[in-house]
UniProtKB/TrEMBL annotation:
Keywords: Repressor, Stress response, Transcription, Transcription regulation. GO terms for molecular function: DNA binding. This is Heat-inducible transcription repressor HrcA C-terminal domain-containing protein. The keyword Lipid metabolism does not apply.
Length: 85
């Protein structure tokens, strides 16, 4: 997985864990001050969806993390660090 995809996946997980709402590209760009427009973020989210990391509940919705995404996220945490830190 590319670095930008990892960053987007981590932000989707963070945002979804805070709101329990599907996460759209526009929210990520605005809230997290990403240095790219929503279109490239959407393209990365499509690739993450194709890889099984994100799911789109319905066509016009944002994306939600899958079990595979959470496993990837947890596996990349340094030993002893929790999600809330």
């Amino acid at each position: 997985m590319e670095t930008r995809q990892q960053e987007i996946l981590n932000l989707v997980i963070k945002e979804y864990s805070e709101t329990a709402e599907p996460v759209g590209s526009q929210i990520l760009v605005e809230k997290y001050k990403l240095d790219i427009s929503p279109a490239p973020v959407r393209m990365e989210m499509v690739e993450l969806s194709e890889g099984g990391y994100l799911n789109q509940p319905y066509t016009s919705a944002g994306r939600v993390p899958t079990d595979k995404a959470y496993r990837f996220f947890v596996d990349q945490l340094p030993p002893g660090q929790s999600f809330r830190q």
